[in-house]
Amino acid sequence: MVGMSIRNPKQSLYVQFAAVAKALGNPQRLELVEHLAQGPRSVDALATKLGLPIANVSQHLQAMRRAGLVTSDRNGKFINYRLADDSVLAAFAAIRVVAEHHSAEVERVVRGWFDRHDDMEPVTRDELASRMKEGLVTVIDVRPADEFALGHLPGAINVPLSELGSLLPDLRTDREIVAYCRGPWCVMSFEAVAELRKRGFSARRLEDGLPEWRAAGMAVEQVLRGDTAAVGGP
Amino acid sequence: MVGMSIRNPKQSLYVQFAAVAKALGNPQRLELVEHLAQGPRSVDALATKLGLPIANVSQHLQAMRRAGLVTSDRNGKFINYRLADDSVLAAFAAIRVVAEHHSAEVERVVRGWFDRHDDMEPVTRDELASRMKEGLVTVIDVRPADEFALGHLPGAINVPLSELGSLLPDLRTDREIVAYCRGPWCVMSFEAVAELRKRGFSARRLEDGLPEWRAAGMAVEQVLRGDTAAVGGP
DNA sequence: AGTTCATTCGATATAATTATTGAATGTGAA
DNA sequence: TTCACATTCAATAATTATATCGAATGAACT
Question: Which of A17, A112, A206, B132 could form a cystine bridge with A180, CB 3.0-4.6 A?
Answer without folding.
Answer: A206
